[in-house]
Amino acid sequence: MIYNVQFHEFFSRYEEDENARPPVMVLQPISSRLPNFLNKLIPAQQEEDQRKWWEIMCNLQENLRYISTYLFKVLINEMIAIMSNKCPCSRSTKCPTRPCKTTTFR
């Protein structure tokens, strides 16, 4: 299970640009979700939106670090298994099916 991942928050920052060929996902500015992030006319609301942004950014950074560490460990385990001629699923020394059906990252 992945640790505290808020995929909705991450992917809500992107919008599809259907005019591009092929269509692409474009990262939207912070102010598109937090309209008062840059609004200096209303300092209280600007401070609130900036606080929300820092909380979102810290969560995203933490989740990306966790996911990258997790994937790195999976990759290292598979490399060790390949180098030692063992199945990455650790069920046997030689997997009856190549590639192993239980390995998800192929």
Description:
The protein is mainly alpha-helical. It has a domain at 7-65. It is 43% helix and 8% strand. It has helices spanning 7-11, 43-83, and strands at residues 14-17, 24-27.
Percent of residues in helices: 40-55%
Biggest sheet features: 2 strands, antiparallel
User: Which stretches of 5+ consecutive residues score pLDDT under 50?
Assistant: none
Rg (CA only): 21 Å
Write the topology of this structure.
Elements (H helix, E strand, L loop, with lengths): L6 H5 L2 E4 L6 E4 L15 H41 L23
Antiparallel strand pairs: 1-2
In a nutshell, what does this entry contain?
With 106 residues, the chain is mainly alpha-helical. The chain contains two helices and two strands; from the N terminus they run αββα. The protein has a domain at 7-65.
What structural keywords apply?
two-stranded antiparallel sheet; 106 residues; mainly alpha; 2 helices
